[in-house]
Amino acid sequence: MKERISIRKANIGDVSEIVRIHRDCVLKTNSQSYSPEQITEWLSQITVDNVIAQFDCTDWHVVQIGIIIVGFAQVAFEECEINQINIRPEYQKRGYGKKMLGFLEKKFRIRGLKEINLNSTKDAEGFYNHMDFRSVRSVKYRLQKLAVEMVLMKKQLL
Description:
Layout: E1 5-9, H1 15-28, H2 36-44, H3 48-55, E2 59-65, E3 68-76, E4 81-87, H4 96-110, E5 115-121, H5 125-130, E6 134-142, E7 147-156
């Protein structure tokens, strides 16, 4: 039986699941590339209140299999930027990130935007390179006391 995959705009009722997925990704995926101190500080910033505060200034979408949310994306179209795409660790490397990215690229094109920018975690750089993003330079993303190294990446839309 084929999985029914859908992507929709996130709503306030999705926030606790978005937080759960994001925290799980940081703990299980990003922890392979960042120090325990960075992971602890990073996790402290992933809260329901923080996500709700960002709902008004960025667009959020979720990818689902049936009714199960397996991932989400946060986008700032005005800045031509994908803030984040996170897929539950147990669903990674199964095409859901690729499907979400394709969905977002269509949204960028519909708006007439010619470029997508993002700051990739070190562990996701290979995925974005595979999706035709080019690495531009290393950047430091400030947490509270610490910073994490990320990679500024860009993709030209044709």
